[in-house]
Write a structure and sequence with these properties.
This protein is mainly alpha-helical. It is built from five helices and no strands.
Length: about 130
C-alpha cells in the first residue's frame, strides 16, 4: 500500500494539471503532429526522471525530478488543452484527461481526431 507521502505527491501533480487546463485559453491550436511531438517529449522526460528518482535513495534528492516532472506536466497539459480545443472538443476532454487511466484514452482520441477549426495545423500554410 502506498504511503500518504505518495498520495500527497499524486494529488499535487493532479492539482497542477487542473491548473494548467484552467489557465490555458486554447487560442493557439496545435495539430496532431505537434501534439504527438509533445507527447514524445513528455514520455521521454518520464523515462529519464523515473530512472533518476529510482536511483536516488535520499528522499530529499527525489524532489529534483518531482519539480521537473511537475513543470513538464504543466506544459504538456496546456498543449493537451490546446489540442482538445483544436479538435473541437473544448476544454472538457482536457479535464477528463486529468483522471488517471482515462488520460490514455483521451490522448489516443486527440492523436486520431483531425483538426476541426478550419485549417489543418498538420499541413504547411500556403
Amino acid at each position: 500500500m502506498p504511503s500518504s507521502y505518495v498520495w500527497l505527491i499524486v494529488g499535487f501533480v493532479i492539482v497542477v494539471q487542473i491548473v494548467a487546463v484552467t489557465l490555458e485559453k486554447g487560442d493557439a491550436p496545435i495539430g496532431r503532429r505537434e501534439f504527438g511531438s509533445w507527447l514524445f517529449y513528455f514520455l521521454t522526460a518520464a523515462l529519464i526522471l523515473g530512472g533518476a528518482s529510482q536511483s536516488s535513495s535520499n528522499s530529499i534528492a527525489s524532489f529534483g525530478p518531482l519539480i521537473v516532472w511537475t513543470i513538464f506536466s504543466f506544459v504538456f497539459y496546456q498543449s493537451l488543452t490546446r489540442r482538445s480545443v483544436d479538435a473541437g472538443f473544448g476544454k472538457w476532454l482536457a479535464y477528463i484527461a486529468v483522471i488517471p487511466l482515462l488520460n490514455f484514452l483521451c490522448i489516443l482520441i486527440l492523436l486520431v481526431v483531425p483538426t476541426r477549426t478550419g485549417r489543418s495545423n498538420d499541413q504547411p500554410r500556403a
